[in-house]
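Below is how a single chain appears once it has passed through the pipeline. First comes the sequence as given, then the structure the pipeline wrote out for it. We keep one example in the README because the format questions we get most often are answered faster by looking than by reading.
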Amino acid sequence: MKIAFIGGRDIHKLGGIEAYTYNLCTQLVKMGHEPVVFCESDREEEEWVNGFHVYHQKSLDSKYKTKPYLGLKAVKRLLKEYPDIQFYHFNHGGPAFLGGPWARLHNKTTLIQQHGIEFRRTKWNKFQRFIMKGTELYSVKICGKYSTSVSLEQVERTERVYHKHCWYIPTAVNLPGEIKDESALGRYGIKHEGYYLYLGRLVQDKNPDFLIKAYLASGVKDRKLVIAGSNDQEPTYVDYLRRMAQGNENIVFTGAVYGDDKETLMKHCAAFCIPSTIEGLAITLLEAMSYGRICIASDIPANKEGLEDNALWVKAEDVDTLCEALKNADQHFERLKQDGEKNYQRIAEGFTWPKVARQYMDMVNEIINKSR
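Resulting structure:
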């Protein structure tokens, strides 16, 4: 089956949505399907990645217009070059804002995948949150005839608020394999289980600033804090984080990491930290769990969905509970390793790409049967 995936940034820069698309499409190819991906990029280019066709689309210099414009652009190109593709999968409401209605006008089956409750992000003011709620309503009711989400919290919200069925297809990971190059440890001056790890985009709602404050207040000296991530769209916030850590050699900024460097940081950290205010079911969390890592996590529904009871829980945007968790992880590390082993088992049993890809295609086939 041919399926169009629309939205997300450059497929080679694996953030959450990008990693989801990359890994799901890779697995779908193995199952005999033909995904076609349209992503936001800094260039106009076509390529084949792991057996699926990828279109890189150059974006506009506007954070509000970029995604709607690229979604419409992708749909127009699909209608021209792939008229036989019936199933259009939009990643979030932005790309679907214009592209979704245009696809539906041409009798295409449209699916909106939700990756988080956008209006809850701390970066929005009251007016912007009002706009986000309106965008969510428009996306769910108009842009996508069908809806899916990576988190049970958002499934429940969609069905409760919009009275619309929403399929639950979680994120997933590949179980760890051999890492050929682990030189990142030496380059960043860290050692096995000698550091706490934050890995993700450097944005306010993921709270790396609270984590840095908690680390500085914790008095932990034998383990470093590694901040892995970037955010080119908000350089002021990134500079703020670096100023907070200025003069402390135990806080290491790596920038964005991919491939072996990313896997190395996951494999060798003492604990993975995800103190976010809002998440879907974060792929980075599942990756850390697949390595059997201890997790320090905010007690939000998405994190509890992934971890169940196996975490050091903290309150979002709270320095005190984060500080205590860091100290507990340092002092009781050997005992807490048992939670890490449980995390690995949970991933192996329920959150691998072969299993999730089968769930995804079961959903697609059900939707297509409904649409006939």
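The chain has a mean pLDDT of 91.

See the next section for the split statistics.
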